[in-house]
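User: Quick sanity check before I run a bigger batch. Here is a single chain. Can you write out its predicted 3D structure?
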Amino acid sequence: MNLNSIQLKLTSLAAPVVVAAFSASAAFAQEPAAAAANSKSIADVFADSGAVGLCIVLLSVVALAVIIENFVSLNRDKLAPPELIDEIQALFEDEQYQEAMELCENEPNYFTRVCGAGIAKIGHPFSTVEKAMEEMGDEESIKLHQKVGWLALIANVAPMMGLLGTVGGMVEAFNEIASSSGGANPAQLASGISKALLTTMFGLIVALPVTAAFAFIRNRMVRNIIEVGAIVEDLFEHFRDGSNE
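Assistant: Done. Predicted structure follows.
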């Protein structure tokens, strides 16, 4: 065997290896391009979720606004400003009940409304004063619970809307199967299935944090109402003592 035959045989053995190497490098070069082509932006994801998905996104914006508003308006200092409590206590110590009534009317909030209801009944038996404050406190508490109740409504509606989108997406997928006489490929069904899963995910993403926010704000509100009620009760306590004389 001469040198030329050896070189020819080595070349024939190396050729498949070189071809495989070039093929692998080409595949690796095409993979990032394919991944880039398949990647979607957030706007594309929202668009794929359909009208129901966009409604859930809009509902999430409303939920965020309600959470912020409730978090601010149901704060302890908003329900009963400390400086206002001090002013009314000072007026009570000086027995200036008319001035205290005017202050309550000019500064409407939970504390002043309950106090105003009690001040309006001063001169009557303490049971009448106490009943007036209890009725006003119950009325104001109902209003506050109604404000927080919007979060509970959103937390319940969001997953239901997600379920509606899920059903709509599955109907779309089955319609595709029916129109193709059962010969639809997975790519043709992907749009409807993707819409179904996206709306379900959006509904749960909105419902979970809104439910947690509702529980937190409601519990804090109840605690603040109890604290303010105790302050009002202490403020009118000397009327109870006077009624026993």
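Confidence is low (pLDDT under 50) at residues 1-37.

User: Great, the batch can go ahead then.
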